[in-house]
């Protein structure tokens, strides 16, 4: 396949999506929504799965009750998975079993319910450890989400290891939750944030990253898979280079752990974070992986019950990790739900999920190129470049939020629009916002086809006002 690399947008193009699509067009859209008129026959062309060759998407869809509904009069096409994934019935059942059958606090009671809740909670920790190949389940700290896990490292490790003039290396493509905690800590200690730009293929420039590393570098905090560009960073190489100058590596694996085999020992990551809700698990739970010697050397992040060894009136001693970092009653049912999500994903196999998604993601990319005046961000897929199964894009002279609203209201297609918590990256790309379609293993080519039909219809609708 020959794919032309999209050009950077012209200044006029950038202006065109800094404000929403003109009010005349929006007024027409409102009228259309009100009357609930179909802009075309797209919805009558909705593709159905071919029963002869069931894909992973076709075989797993039945496990997700939420996908089988109509939204705004159309069959739901949920392709906002980079924001959050849907939950299989097995995960919902695990939550229900906990609340109906053995709801109790963990690590505190000696009664049956508490012992059972504690067993299941700790079993979930072991499942997370095995899933990412941590050598010891004590290397897994449950947090509220990936954001809290990054804050934990920034405040606990950062405040005790960073000093004036030390450097923290990031890329311009990091999620806000991987930038702001380091800004806050750097401001406190006088450390410096160094940002690596993109190369000409719109991938964070790892040659520049290698160049920027020095004895001043204390931590490299980078994503594994970009939630906007769909690019994948070579973490093992980055860790090797960082360790060569004595720096630590924190991997934001929010968009990789749900979609591929992630092996922390193979990557040689010092810290790695992810959120349960993006990997078929409940919201309100995420985790931090940290090498045991690092976690053991770190002071507490939050104080309270569970994280102490002994408390006196004037001081306290602290528990060993992971308890040291889990102050207060944790999200017990949610951790157990995450364990169920891991069982579910492992039952399918992460390699099978990854291979299916690479194929589906390439299909999405290729089909999107059929839309006139589209600009897809990130590298073009090729034999060498495997994109994640998401595409962020803009269509000339259309605001992505108008596009996403029309897709939802007229076609039942759920995509994301905005800056995807990556404002610096959007600024670098010369735009305020983009639309993003992101797939998961339960999506099918029919979902992609239906989205593309709907997108063509959306673009024609808005263009008809010009
Ligand atoms: C790459 C990346 N990092 C971090 C986050 C933050 O995840 P959470 O909001 O679950 O903490 C996200 C979520 O969108 C993400 O995509």
Write up this protein.
This protein has a 7-stranded mixed β-sheet with strand order 4-10-9-8-7-5-6, sandwiched between helices. It is built from 16 helices and 17 strands. The protein has 2 domains: 192 residues, Aspartate Aminotransferase, domain 1; 244 residues, Aspartate Aminotransferase, domain 2. Helix 5 packs across helix 12 and helix 13 runs parallel beside helix 16. It has 466 residues and is an alpha/beta fold. The N terminus is likely disordered. Helix 7 links the parallel strand 5 and strand 6. The structure holds pyridoxal-5'-phosphate. The site of pyridoxal-5'-phosphate has 15 residues, from helix 6. The site of pyridoxal-5'-phosphate (PLP) has 15 residues, from helix 6.
Helix-strand makeup class: alpha/beta
The helix content is: 25-40%
**Could you say how many structural domains there are in total?**
2
Strand content: 5-15%
CATH class of the largest domain: Alpha Beta
Oligomer: single chain
Report the CATH architecture of the largest domain.
3-Layer(aba) Sandwich
Which small molecules are bound? pyridoxal-5'-phosphate
What is the terminal-to-terminal distance? 33 Å
Taking the sheet with the most strands, its summary is: 7 strands, mixed
Rg calc: 23 Å
InterPro entries: Aminotrans_V_dom, Cys_dSase_SufS, PyrdxlP-dep_Trfase, PyrdxlP-dep_Trfase_major, PyrdxlP-dep_Trfase_small
Organism: Medicago truncatula
EC number: 2.8.1.7
GO molecular function, one term: cysteine desulfurase activity
